[in-house]
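User:
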Amino acid sequence: MTAPPVEPILRSVKCLDGRGLHRMAYWEWGDADHAHVVVCVHGLSRQGRDFDTLARELATRCRVICPDIVGRGRSDRLADPMGYTIPNYVADMVTLVARLGVEQLDWVGTSMGGLIGLGLASLPGTPVRRLVLNDVGPTIEPEALRRIGGYLGQPAHWRTLDEAADALWAISRGFGPHTREQWLALTRPQLVADTAHPEGGFKPHYDPAIAVPFRAITPELAAAGEALLWQSWDRLACPTLLLRGADSDLLSHDTALAMTRRGPRARLHEFAGVGHAPMLVQPDQRAVVRDFLLGP
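Assistant: Predicted structure:
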């Protein structure tokens, strides 16, 4: 087996949507021939480079795949913003799995990425062998939805990397303590050059239109979605690790406990001093995930 690359390789796959095809980018770490594949999927407005620290560690023993979900990072934007939904993301993942050519994989999903993993893992004949849900479950607290809705898709422009890092930190304190170096590393891939601005600078590296279906969620739709997610949860048969920031406003402690008592009866691990969501950068967080994925 060849040594894993220090940096990931950027690849892409064409996926089907209601208007045609779109390109989904993904970052590949480790030996492409390694039988143990781990797919790591990011949160709502993030992108695949969030997992650099975890992927770099796992890549010595696994092939690690970190997609940019459509509308984020290096992936295409959709012509129809109402295509930015979990079922469509699950369909894209089926296409990705076919491209990878594997029968089984492990899944690490943060927030939205966890819901995508839940959808894929609940399907008959699923390729998901082990599932890690990072601070998300079938019941999502309304307070968190209001908080996220306050910034998602809003116009933003920053003159410098440091200015952007400060602004993103102001809405991301739930991620928990990070050094300045760690936070800058998480910030850089979140930015793209703002070529339309006369002074240059940066803007968020996602399609603002991802907020369109998010803002279209009514209480009735949310209740129906929650019921479907619990049905999916109860169908899971794979070993499941549930991570929770002890101060999370999105995944309540009561919901997390319910997830340990029904469905796959998840193993729960909470991180003190962290809200929504642990970024899996700190050594203690990475160790919990590593031991679950690589253990017997």
